[in-house]
Design a protein that fits this description.
Length: about 650
């Protein structure tokens, strides 16, 4: 093979093809050694132009070709390892910068080897270490404490190789030496290669026990009642740390970053190189950072096991180890932990699921279920009667001459739909839990549709009531200039558009609602069916905003409208009745408002009416174009008045009425 620059890496594959990595030409070339005639070299990887694209290289160094003729390249200045499958010009990043997901951070990798099980061993030259992969990802094998000249350190290593016994040889370039790292079969009595590196490191020890008073959780989301202890680890110096246990029981350990949630043991779980030496010990190595909160959870390999244990840690510096009490999030699906809730309030599933007895008649259910059934049906009957009476009332065309009447008519319909959907939701939960063999398609359809429809009815009803409040405020503001026809037209459009706006705002609900089947621990035939809503962070923020808009905003509108009516009416009264100040009128309005809502009189007695109401009735009849009559008590005086005037003579009246 003739090349125009030096070869930083050489490799001969199983077909007797020679590969050369030319760092100065940013490519890898190959030539068959079986050819009798010297042919030109072919390009195996790279374009000859320095770059970071998938088909480019930047100072390629070490190379390796596997039995499938796939080419692995240590792409040094791109800080990655590229895989060029046979016949492909575009590479795949398998380690380092740009890998998906990010596997490990590399700095100027210079050598690479692939073993028979397709595990990678990489010379991470800039980080002065050797890293390797296994089923749990990448881990440090040698030089795990930074660059140096100690026996467990490397300084700018360049390449590596293994002998037939698994011993590793590394060219420790800047230390001008070749280092041998001896391989030991992993067992509790003979340490692994990694353990030798930590033998002289700073160690910490922690001892405790698991007993029947310890907290429990579901370690693997299949079985529950694992005793565990959470331990807070304070790291003094960033680096690789080895942790191992010694116990009288079968221990199991995990490290969590930031926090540990026993209801979801896979959240915040830190990947580590887990090594089980025997049935009673765990060993693993993790790269820990200073200033980061780490939680070590010690539990057992099987439920209901207790006993003493001790934890030994070794690393570049001492680790402070203390017991940790975590904030427990309420479980979303009872004793299981695949899903847990972070929402506001509770739902029917939360209240009833653990109380319903499967495959039993309603008469044999718990007292809580029976009470809930009775209350639900009472609410439904009461809501049905209220809705029917409201419909009969607002069918009167005279009451629908303004938008308020139309809004209230529509609100009576949505109120009936709301209580109906709530009842349907209740019976859906009860019946599907009683009859756990319900067809999956039925359960899935209810999961996706019932809850969003119930929300839609609630939201539309809230906005209809808000529209009533807005129109009442406009009526106070405009007085006799209030346009009834315009109010009707606007009301028709709003009633038509409002349901579509509500549906558009919650269209994401059916998309993110999923039905999950979870096998029971005691009965492998039957399974629990859970309707779960799982949002991403951005959709969760949107959902919170929508919840505020549909529930809080109408309440604020009603409150502001009530205050506007009270103060606006008081302002109009103060204009017409100057013997009182605005403050006195406001106080009088508030007093009348509170008194009215406390008594809820079925009829008004004339002797209990305020004198102002009678005077305003006279003003209404005599001066229909005045503004100050509009705050009279409609429930006491009605919307019309008939005044009979006697003949000409002298009458005695009270001084206040003669004002």
């Amino acid at each position: 093979m003739n090349v125009s620059s030096r070869c930083e890496g050489l490799f001969v594959d199983i077909n007797n093809t020679l590969y050369c990595s030319m760092s100065q030409h940013y490519q890898v070339v190959a030539r068959s050694l079986n050819e009798s005639v010297m042919n030109s070299n072919r390009i195996a990887a790279g374009t000859g132009i320095k770059g970071s694209a998938s088909n480019q290289l930047a100072d390629p160094l070490g190379i390796f070709v596997d039995v499938n003729l796939d080419l692995y390249v240590a792409d040094s200045h791109n800080h990655r390892v590229q895989l060029f499958q046979s016949g492909e010009s575009n590479g795949i990043t398998v380690a380092g910068r740009g890998s998906r997901p990010q596997t490990i951070t590399l700095l100027y990798p210079s050598g690479i080897i692939l073993d028979a099980e397709k595990y990678l061993f990489i010379v991470d030259s800039g980080n002065h270490r050797i890293v390797g992969s296994d089923l749990n990802g990448f881990r440090c094998l040698a030089g795990c404490y930074g660059g140096g000249s100690q026996s467990n350190q490397l300084y700018n290593p360049f390449s590596l190789s293994f002998d037939r016994y698994g011993n590793m040889f590394v060219t420790d370039e800047s230390n001008h030496r070749i280092q041998k790292f001896q391989y030991y079969e992993e067992s509790c009595n003979s340490p692994s290669v990694i353990e030798i590196l930590y033998s002289s490191a700073v160690q910490s020890n922690y001892s405790s026990e698991l007993n029947t008073s310890s907290q429990t959780y579901s370690r693997d989301c299949r079985k529950s009642n694992y005793y565990y202890q959470a331990i807070r680890m304070n790291v003094m110096e960033t680096g690789y740390y080895a942790l191992s246990s010694n116990s009288s029981m079968n221990t199991f350990g995990d490290i969590y970053k930031d926090d540990f949630n026993p209801m979801n043991p896979f959240e915040n779980l830190l990947s580590q190189d887990y090594r089980a030496c025997s049935s009673q010990d765990f060993k693993f190595i993790a790269y820990l950072h200073t200033g980061t909160k780490y939680i070590l959870v010690v539990t057992t390999s099987s439920p209901n096991m207790t006993g003493n244990f001790s934890i030994l840690t070794s690393g570049p510096k001492n680790i402070t180890i203390d017991p940790y009490t975590q904030i427990v999030t309420s479980c979303f699906i009872g004793q299981k932990c695949q899903f847990y809730k972070k929402s506001i309030g509770v739902i029917l599933d939360d209240i009833l699921r653990d109380e319903i007895r499967p495959n039993m008649a309603l008469a044999d259910q718990t007292i809580l279920v029976k009470i809930t059934v009775a209350l639900t049906m009472i609410m439904f009957v009461g809501g049905l009667i209220n809705s029917v009476l409201s419909l009969l009332t607002f069918r009167n065309k005279d009451l629908r001459q303004v938008g308020c009447g139309m809004y209230l008519l529509a609100s009576s319909i949505t109120s009936f739909l709301t209580i109906s959907m709530f009842t349907v939701k209740f019976w859906f939960v009860v019946l599907t839990q009683i009859n756990i063999s319900t067809r999956l398609s039925v359960v899935r359809g209810g999961c996706v549709s019932i809850e969003p429809l119930l929300k839609l009815c609630v939201y539309v009803d809230a906005w209809l009531n808000a529209c009533v409040a807005i129109e009442r405020a406009i009526l106070v503001f405009k007085g006799i200039n209030f346009n009834k026809q315009k109010s009707q037209r606007i009301a028709r459009w709003i009633i038509l558009i409002l349901p579509f706006c509500g549906m558009g705002s919650i269209i994401h609900e059916p998309i993110y609602r999923e039905l999950h089947e979870i096998k029971s621990e005691t009965n492998k035939v039957d399974s629990d069916k859970w309707c779960v809503t799982h949002y991403s962070s951005s959709v969760q923020q949107y959902n919170t905003i929508i919840l505020f808009v549909h529930l809080v905003a109408p309440c604020i509108i009603n409150l502001c409208s009530a205050l506007f009516i009270i103060f606006g009416s008081a302002q109009q009264r103060s204009t017409a009745q100057t013997r009182r100040t605005l403050k006195e009128h406001v106080y009088n309005q508030l007093e009348d408002f509170v008194t009215y809502h406390k008594k809820k009189l079925a009829k008004c007695e004339a002797e209990k009416m305020p004198n102002e109401n009678l005077l305003e009735t006279l003003n209404l009849s005599s001066s229909v174009f005045e503004r100050h009559f509009i705050d009279r008590a409609f429930d006491c005086l009605g919307q019309m008045s008939l005044v009979t005037i006697p003949g000409v003579r002298v009458f005695e009246v009270e001084h206040e009425l003669a004002f």
